[in-house]
Specification:
alpha+beta, 6 helices
């Protein structure tokens, strides 16, 4: 009987605290967490596009369908950033960071911030891919990765960045 009374007291205390602080209670019971918000966002938008042909995403009309994958998040400044890969029309890869933040105690995807990360996410994706390719090449091809002193390597990287900058300016300037 004592265990039952203790159990009831704990439940009543949690409910009382939950009425006082709904955000904390929701987080405790994981009815609304950042992972769920990100997953539900992409799931709902994908199925809306598949079922009705429309979505609230800022896609152009030539987007017929998309797939997605979401990685584990990184927490920064009270927000969560999920590395996300969209596969537009099952052909075009678009890396993003899904930005999830609490709004009035509810974890919500910030759509504008999410789609604004396309440039940063692309640079991150292709840098990781470049490094992985070079490491793989080093396993199978002799001298595929030239060994350089730090100063030589800095000059090499600077040249590469200048070339990337020129392509970006030419592509995106008005």
């Amino acid at each position: 009987m004592k265990k039952f009374i203790v159990f009831v007291v704990i439940i009543v205390s949690l409910i009382g605290y939950g009425l006082y602080n709904k955000e904390q209670l929701t987080i405790w019971f994981a009815m609304n967490d950042h992972q769920q918000a990100a997953s539900q966002y992409w799931f709902s938008n994908k199925h809306a596009l598949d079922d009705t042909g429309t979505t609230n995403l800022p896609f152009r009309s030539n987007v017929q369908t998309f797939g997605y994958s979401i990685s584990d998040p990184v927490e920064q400044d009270g927000k969560y950033y999920f590395e996300t890969n969209l596969y537009i029309n099952n052909q075009q890869h678009l890396p993003l960071f899904t930005v999830v933040e609490p709004i009035d105690g509810v974890w919500t995807v910030n759509q504008e911030a999410t789609f604004a990360t396309a440039g940063d996410a692309s640079i991150n994706f292709y840098t990781e891919r470049y490094i992985a390719t070079m490491k793989s090449a080093g396993k199978y091809i002799d001298q595929s990765i030239p060994q350089m002193e730090k100063e030589q390597l800095e000059k090499f990287v600077d040249k590469q960045l200048i070339a990337i900058k020129a392509v970006l300016i030419e592509t995106y300037s008005k």
